[in-house]
Design goal:
globular, mainly beta, five-stranded antiparallel beta sheet
């Protein structure tokens, strides 16, 4: 058995973009020898995937000063992933804080992030090998990319949900998928939104002669709200225990939420099933600082079903429990986090994605 302190559980939760395993990582606060932490979540068909290296130093996280990765696909060394520089990691903050703060931020980055550009396919056997601190640490992990589902259909409409003392308007989805035949299957649902605002507005400037010139311009503004999926009415996503808003808000008898929308084919083996979930409507308004003439609001909604390995499903189920608002580590039994890393800690997972894209005017 391997052990991990609480602070490392936090790192694993923050890498949920990652997702057995014959080993598990029970809760333990005792100091241990430093170990390399390798985390990656690889998606078949993605243009880029990412892997992370951290260093466990007992009950705290140390600094990885040097590290490298090698990716093997079906037994062949395919890529030495590029390390992403601290400057690129923090590029969004460049110019928003002063130079001294920015340099301090760069110095405080203790981990390594790598960009993987090799395209993965269902059925590929993946092996990641990591070396850090000039060979002091060596960790590796293996997994196989699962097969995607064969079909996915989505119907959507606006519907009201009872919340607080009234009804709130949400977007409802009925998502129909067909199970992979002849095997036990594990899945995760995700719904993402991209909001677009096309704004036509006036600008004013003075020409060379000092005359005021009025010009019409267009600008396209894009935003991506944080995903929020309400799944409490669905029998599959609640594992046979659908409930309502009052059940979720009951402080005496709280309901465990399936935050990451994980499910299996237990209730529809080798058959089709329809999930019913809701998301906010995500309506946007024109920017207040623009003297706009015309305004068009639209959004692109992407519904994804990820096929997971059993080990990855167990890993994300553990994270789901750790990240639950009702989980109290002092009062409840510690959560065992699966790991498939040899020579270190962490988890390397791979999934296949099937998408349905909706364009809402």
């Amino acid at each position: 058995m391997k052990h991990i302190p609480c602070i490392l559980q936090i790192i694993l939760v923050t890498c949920i973009a990652l997702t057995a395993c014959t080993n598990e990582i029970p809760y333990n606060e005792q100091a241990r020898e430093p170990q390399l932490i390798l985390n990656a979540q690889l998606t078949a068909g993605a243009k880029e995937n990412y892997a992370y290296l951290h260093l466990s130093e007992g009950n705290r996280i140390g600094r990885v000063t040097q590290g490298s990765l090698t990716l093997y696909i079906n037994g062949k060394a395919t890529e030495t992933p590029e390390e992403i520089s601290p400057e690129e990691l923090c590029s969004d903050l460049k110019g928003t804080i002063d130079d001294e703060q920015f340099e301090q931020l760069l110095r405080n980055i203790h981990f390594k992030k790598f960009r993987i550009t090799s395209e993965l396919h269902p059925g590929d056997h993946i092996r990641l090998e990591a070396i850090a601190e000039n060979g002091t640490y060596h960790a590796s992990a293996e997994t196989t990319v699962p097969q995607p589902i064969e079909s996915l259909q989505v119907d959507t409409a606006l519907a009201y949900l009872r919340e607080y003392a009234g009804d709130v308007l949400y977007r409802q989805y009925k998502i129909t998928l067909k199970d992979l035949p002849g095997e036990k299957s594990y899945y995760r649902l995700d719904i993402s939104h991209e909001l677009q605002q096309l704004v036509t507005y006036w600008t004013y400037r003075y020409d060379a002669g000092g005359n005021l010139v009025k010009e019409q311009r267009d600008t396209l503004l894009t935003s991506v709200p944080m995903p929020k999926i309400i799944n409490r009415e669905d029998i599959i996503l609640t594992d046979g225990h659908p409930h309502n808003y009052n059940d979720e808000e009951n402080e005496l008898f709280p309901t465990t939420r399936n935050k990451y929308n994980l499910f299996t084919d237990n209730r529809f083996p080798d058959a089709s099933a329809t999930l019913k979930v809701y998301t906010p409507t995500y309506h946007t308004e024109p920017p207040y600082f623009l003297n706009y003439i015309d305004y068009h609001n639209s959004q692109t909604i992407t519904v994804s079903i990820y096929s997971l390995t059993e080990e990855q499903y167990r890993y994300q189920k553990a994270l789901n429990t750790l990240d639950d608002e009702n989980y109290e580590e002092v009062l409840m039994e510690p959560v065992s986090i699966p790991t498939n890393v040899t020579g270190g800690l962490g988890f390397v997972g791979a999934d296949s994605r099937t998408q349905f894209v909706l364009h809402i005017p």
